[in-house]
Design goal:
Blueprint lengths: L1 E4 L5 E8 L3 E5 L13 H5 L3 E5 L15 H13 L5 E6 L1 H9 L6 E7 L13 H12 L3 H13 L3 H8 L4 H6 L1 H13 L14 E6 L4 H13 L3 E6 L6 H4 L1 H13 L3
Parallel strand pairs: 3-4, 3-5, 5-6, 6-7, 7-8
Antiparallel strand pairs: 1-2, 2-4
Helix pairs in contact: 2-3, 4-5, 4-8
């Protein structure tokens, strides 16, 4: 894997594959670069893909004290290391990191954000009790139960989608990284979204949203669509928060149609 050095000197790893214009992929909470396996072969046919390991997992480094701002810098560092304008695609927490990274680099061509969990909705759940449960489970060595509790109690993943996640090859890596979900959820809750800051993000942006996703994720997508000068929403009918697993062909079709479309 390749690496770049982020602003705080933390090494951020990425796997490069495929051929074509550069596409940087930023995974969500508990995942690593392997979360893209269901859609990676199709993407590699069209793009040179840079699939990031966010800090704290895979081959990327970490720091003792966690700060969400560093994640924004990590994504921007990878984008800035590429010598031509990049398509940046982020999922969930990775979409939040990608959104903020767009304010730190001019090296972007298009942006794809799949349900960044902005804490802007009245439907956003109070997660502190769930996080306490997860912490106790991790302390007892029950990482998998903690991960299931995260997906069911915070993300609101439907049972069928959770089943699809559990049979994916990267499930064991998710289990190993579940402790990072606790710090990231607390950081998410402390994030303050200011719509006026994104008036300068004028690049075309696709906002993917599952028709069956949790209400707080749908609300966040709507708020972001209002904030972005050139945003558009594509609803994945019948899907929730992980269409890469449950409907990979549909996910690919939406992404390719947007990227190939006119600016």
């Amino acid at each position: 894997m390749g690496t770049v050095t982020s602003a705080d000197d933390t090494p951020i790893a990425f796997e490069r594959s495929g051929n074509g214009p550069p596409l940087v992929l930023v995974h969500g909470t508990t995942a690593d670069h392997t979360r893209w396996a269901p859609v990676l072969p199709a993407l590699e046919e069209h793009f040179t893909v840079y699939a990031i390991d966010r800090r704290g997992r895979g081959e990327s480094g970490d720091t003792e004290e966690y700060d969400l701002e560093r994640e924004f810098e990590d994504v921007a560092a990878v984008v800035e290391s590429i010598d031509e304008p990049v398509i940046l695609l982020g999922h969930s927490y990775g979409a939040l990191c990608s959104l903020e990274a767009a304010l730190q680099t001019d090296n972007l061509h298009k942006l794809v954000l799949y349900e960044p969990p902005l804490p802007v909705s009245d439907h956003d759940p109070d997660t502190e009790d769930v996080l306490d449960e997860m912490t106790a489970l991790v302390d007892d060595g029950e990482n998998e139960q903690a991960l299931v509790r995260f997906f069911s109690g915070i993300v609101g993943v439907p049972p069928a989608e959770l089943d699809a996640l559990r049979v994916a090859p990267n499930w064991p890596a998710r289990v190993d990284a579940v402790h990072t979900a606790i710090r990231e959820e607390r950081a998410r809750k402390g994030y303050e979204f200011d719509a006026t800051r994104f008036a300068e993000v004028t690049i075309p942006t696709l906002l993917l949203s599952g028709s069956e996703s949790a209400p707080f994720l749908k609300d966040a997508t709507d708020v972001l669509d209002d904030a972005l000068p050139d945003g558009r929403i594509a609803v994945l009918d019948g899907q929730a928060h992980a269409a890469m697993n449950t409907a990979p062909d549909r996910f690919i079709d939406e992404v390719l149609a947007f990227i190939r479309g006119s600016s």
